Amino acid sequence: MSAKTNPVPAVSAQGARIPLLGLGTWDLRGRVCADMVEAALRLGYRLIDTAEMYDNERFVGEGLRASGVKRDDVFLTTKIWPSHFAADDLPGAARDCLKRLGVSEVDLLLLHWPNPQIPLPETIGALCKVKRDGLARHIGVSNFNTALIEAAWKATSEPLVCDQVECHPYLDQSKVMAACRRHGMAMTAYSPIAQGKAGGDKVLARIGAAHNKTAAQICLRFLVEQNIVVIPRTSKAARLSENAAIFDFSLSDGEMAEISALSRAGRRLIPAGFGRPDWD
Ligand SMILES: NC(=O)c1ccc[n+]([C@@H]2O[C@H](COP(=O)([O-])OP(=O)(O)OC[C@H]3O[C@@H](n4cnc5c(N)ncnc54)[C@H](OP(=O)(O)O)[C@@H]3O)[C@@H](O)[C@H]2O)c1
Q1: Distance 34 CA to ligand 1 centre (A)
Q2: Which active-site residues does the annotation give?
Q3: Do 28 and 240 form a contact (C-beta atoms < 8 A)?
């Protein structure tokens, strides 16, 4: 089954409708990036995740146009790198993203990482203005812990629709999740298959055998079952359909508990950046 035969469900968050499944594009470059974006959209994916830092927005735009899928039907996310967080820099950086992508607005513009060097109210104010100026339909944050989520909400005049954070069965993100829920935000899981490691997990594979699914599919299902948006990346066309075939079965409470038990302290793959080791 593909996402095409079964449209991807979406979560509602602060006025946004965000597909529960998208394609991550970190480290996809050039033709491979354009081809994977095109193939994913043809298959039924409706969310593409990129960032100015990935150096691939031009190819994401190419794939988008080659797919033939209407622009309005695709939820396009990009992210502003922290070196562009000053009020004078952020609008120009956002315009450069749009230029590279070849679109007039993105669906979601995120702050990629917190930047303690620049006051958060200044950055959030600039992000809100970019939204009001029509460059982004929705705005949000990434790699924000609970304290920063609270600070961002104090500073914002526009709704923040999501926090994109590292999230997979090996990392307990329940605190950030609770903060997102309190504010009606979606949580998006990056590295949702633990950068491929979940694909070889024995517990996930055993649960998968009972559902005729792979370990990676069980891993993704575990997240979407909690209404967490997943953006797995792959450079292989066959895995696009594997990663999309997660909406035709569900996990029992016992299976969910067994997968939750895989999380341990210190299982973070991406180190907390910008001098913020104390994460939650
Ligand atoms: N906001 C942030 O700071 C941040 C940080 C990191 C990532 N992200 C976003 O999140 C996306 C996903 O995270 P990620 O790229 O770090 O890791 P990921 O999606 O968890 O894992 C990607 C790796 O898993 C492999 N893979 C894909 N499907 C598989 C399957 N069905 N079975 C086994 N292995 C599989 C891929 O290899 P193949 O290519 O060989 O399939 C690739 O090596 C990124 O691409 C990016 O868009 C955001």
Answers
A1: 16
A2: 54
A3: no
Mean pLDDT of the chain, nearest integer: 95
Q: Is the CB of 190 under 6 A from ligand 1?
A: yes
| Nearest CA owner, ligand 1 atom 11 | 24
CB of 49 within 6 A of ligand 1: the answer is yes
pTM beyond 0.90, yes or no: yes
135 vs 117: CA distance, rounded Å: 25
Q: Whose CA is nearest to atom 13 of ligand 1?
A: 191
Where does the chain show beta strands of DSSP type E? 10-13, 16-19, 23-24, 47-49, 75-80, 106-111, 136-142, 160-166, 186-190, 229-230
Question: Has residue 265 got a pLDDT over 70?
Answer: no
CA of 197 from ligand 1 middle (Å) equals 10
CA dist., res. 232 & res. 191, Å (int):
7
End-to-end alpha carbon distance in the chain: 37
- Report how far residue 9's alpha carbon sits from residue 45's, in angstroms, rounded to the nearest whole number: 10
Q: Could you identify the atom of ligand 1 that is nearest to the CA of residue 199?
A: 33
CB 162 within 8 A of CB 185: yes
Share of the chain above pLDDT 70, in %: 94
Which tokens go with 276? Answer: 């913020």
Per-residue pLDDT at 275 exceeds 70:
no
Q: Whose CA is nearest to atom 19 of ligand 1?
A: 232
Report which of 36, 22, 128 is spatially closest to residue 76, judged by C-alpha positions. Answer: 22
Q: 196 C-alpha to center of ligand 1: Å?
A: 7
